[in-house]
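Pilot study result, target chain (329 residues):
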Amino acid sequence: MNRQHFLRGALACIAGATVGSVPLAVRAQAGGWPNKPLRLIVNFPAGGSADIVARAVAKPLSEALGQPIVIDNRAGAGGIIGADAGAKAAPDGYTFLLSSGSALSIVPLLNAKLPFDPAKDLVPVAGGARLELFLVVRSDLPFNDYAGFIKYAKANPGKLTYGTPGNGTTPHIAGEMLKSRAGFYSVHIPYRGQGAVLLDMLGGRLDYSFDPGISFQHIKSGKLRLLAMGSAKRSPLYPDTPTLDELGLKGFDTGTTHGFWAPAGMPAAVVDRLNVEINRALVLPDVVSAIRAIGAEPHVLTPAQFGRVIQDDRERYAVIVRERKITQD
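Predicted structure:
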């Protein structure tokens, strides 16, 4: 799908869900909101994918609302610290949250005692970006495609190693999902971040990983090889690369959606207005480019649709978390 078709389709989605009289009605019901700067909490550090999505959307959103938006990075504990701050903020319409998809779909599966209840303390506002994972291997390994990878892995159990940014992260769960569905064994090596994974792959100390989009230049240079997409659809960046679903692992999807949330109790009119304006921002060319630069796609959703996406992701990941006994320890 080219960019023109994408923008046309996304605008049609917004038109079907939110335009007409809704924006005017929302403006009328919001009682003059906003009349001061807003704070957008991001539950990961500056420069990461969640931060990139937040800053890409914040500029046009600020212009649409007529107020500055201050980005407040609250990183730590897999996104829990920032999400907790968002959940416990005053629901007055002036603080909302951009959370990584994993923090609200996977982390609750791994932590029985969160400091907040995702289902009760946060309400979905809008999607932001659907992040996909790319199955990447070292180019000097003795196979050239997915079929060769699986044949080699089955013939050499435990010889291949795969790296992740830590236990319980999306790439870790994706790796265990692949091993379970494809029926082979490899050794998991957790790191403190995806950057360290990439360095060790380039250094020949790791064999493969589910990459969230930081290895593109090394795929282009030939140092790494892209075998498959871990998503439900092919990536516009690599339209010739098949998905694992196409390659025989039906229903394989390791995508997560970064998106916007509000503390429970925020006025419905404010949530609706934010949804309208965020969705308008998500189809702007500069925002689309920023999101696609990290290997993701803009995700235009109503609040209800976004909530359902997160719930569906959580249910899908729960199966593999239970089966493989995955923890963050």
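One observation from the pilot: The two ends are 41 Å apart (CA to CA). A full batch analysis is planned for the follow-on phase.
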